[in-house]
Specification:
Structural class: alpha+beta
Largest sheet: 5 strands, antiparallel
CATH topology of the largest domain: Aminoglycoside 3'-phosphotransferase, Chain: A, domain 2
Strand order of the largest sheet: 1-2-3-5-4
Order of helices and strands: HHHEEEEEHEEEHEEEEHHHHEEEEHHHHH
Number of domains: 3
Distance between the termini: 41 Å
Radius of gyration: 22 Å
Number of helices: 14
Length: about 425
């Protein structure tokens, strides 16, 4: 059922006539069942990627007579180009339901079923062992487990065999993301302080990376377990400090233009989700950009997307994952991102506030950096991290997503307050 916030969003974007169908799971299920008669019994929307006035993509989990299958549906405006254009060529035979994709006749929607993803063309060959060099001998039967799939962006598979139980990881990236992923995987090898998924091989044509498996439990799962001691995060802080001390990227320190551009590009999306707060959002974004100019110190190689899902713990040994956003930046950005995700879990009710504070303090103890100037920068990047997470409740179709989005906006503003120390900042135009 559509919420009032959903209906407001739909009314504000008439250029996407299929948006209402994408956001309404009941109507979407009926449509999919008409396109695949007798095959689909239920569906869940797992993820949304919405670009106002351009497109909206919904990742799906379909319950079918063949078991659970991933897929996605996309609607696009008439002026959309490239991968957002709805094409009749998607009716080419192939895939579990007999077609590469279905261009619906009753709604401006395109449905695709995993592994048919034109932006990740190697997926079908990998999963059928056609034309791909697998890491194990051809005589050694292999199994592939899908660890993560983001339509049109990337897929992560764990490949194992009887003689190689631990296996390897295969990552398939869209063309516009492949080179950044390859750079990150190539530049950060395992060290005594932290483990990483070492790069074994890569295939430019197939846009794939073959990497070693990193054992361990994901930190986010450990964090949510109240029996796991929060002081275990001290080791993560120590490892992160060691990571920041290494110069993997030798770029002249400068203000990170990409972050300025990102914030400016984020504002229209946030005002579309929270139209009643449009003025507050614009002012806050400009204040953040001004504070970056004044306080940020981009002199370290940073992870760029550091939070508990990117960390593994294996008998006290720390491992880091996914260096796709490796860049020169302010070391405080990684810590601010980590803290923002803790706040997000608190607001979702997944994490007790006291537990979140214990985890944060343990990270700071391990990192061993405390000063008024450092704390100001961490607060700045925590504020930016919270703002980045404002769309997440909508993207993941959480009940009451607009309330949670507004809570994250207020968390961002609260975290920004200590940055200025009571004085007024002159924002950039």
């Amino acid at each position: 059922m559509l919420s009032p916030a959903d209906r407001n969003l739909i009314a504000a974007d008439p250029t996407l006539p299929g948006l209402e169908m994408v956001l309404d799971p009941e109507r979407l299920l009926s449509l999919v069942q008409r396109e695949y008669p007798g095959r689909v019994t239920d569906l869940t929307t797992t993820y949304l990627r919405y670009k106002p006035g351009t497109s909206c993509l919904a990742g799906l989990q379909l319950e079918t007579d063949e078991g659970r299958i991933d897929g996605y549906v996309i609607t696009a405006s008439e002026r959309a180009e490239g991968k957002y254009r709805l094409r009749k060529a998607d009716a080419v035979p192939g895939g579990p339901f007999g077609t590469m994709g279905v261009l619906c006749q009753t709604a401006p929607l395109l449905i695709r079923v995993f592994p048919n993803d034109p932006d990740l063309p190697a997926l079908r060959r990998l999963l059928t062992h056609q034309g791909q060099a697998w890491p194990f001998p051809s005589t050694d039967p292999t199994t592939a487990t899908i660890l993560r799939y983001k339509p049109q962006r990337r897929a992560v598979l764990r490949v194992r065999s009887e003689n190689h139980a631990e296996g390897c990881v295969v990552k398939v990236h869209a063309r516009n993301r492949y080179h950044a992923a390859l750079r990150g995987a190539s530049l950060v090898p395992p060290t005594p302080e932290y483990a990483t998924a070492a790069l074994i091989n890569h295939d430019l044509r197939a846009q794939t990376l073959l990497m070693r498996w990193v054992p361990g439990k994901v930190l986010v799962d450990l964090s949510l377990d109240p029996t796991w001691p929060a002081r275990g995060v001290e080791a993560v802080g120590e490892a992160l400090r060691a990571f920041h001390a290494r110069s993997y990227l030798r770029t002249e320190p400068r203000f990170s233009d990409h972050l300025r551009d990102h914030l400016q590009g984020l504002a229209p999306m946030l005002t579309r989700l929270l139209p009643a707060r449009a003025g507050v959002i614009r002012t806050h974004v400009q204040s953040l950009i001004g504070a970056l100019d004044e306080f940020s110190t981009p002199t370290a190689t940073i992870h760029g997307d550091f939070y508990a899902k990117q960390v593994l713990i294996d008998r006290g040994k720390v491992g880091f994952l996914d260096f796709d956003q490796l860049q020169v930046g302010d070391a405080a950005e990684d810590l601010g991102c980590f803290r923002a995700h803790l706040e997000r879990d608190v607001l979702r009710g997944r994490l007790d506030p006291r537990r979140a504070e214990e985890l944060w303090e343990a990270l700071c103890v391990g990192y061993r950096a405390r000063s008024s100037e450092w704390d100001r920068r961490v607060s700045l990047f925590t504020s930016i991290g919270c703002l980045n997470l404002v769309p997440d409740p909508f993207r993941h179709r959480e009940p009451g997503w607009s309330d949670r989005a507004e809570q994250l906006l207020e968390a961002s503003r609260t975290r920004f307050a200590p940055v200025l120390g009571g004085r007024r900042l002159v924002t950039c135009p």
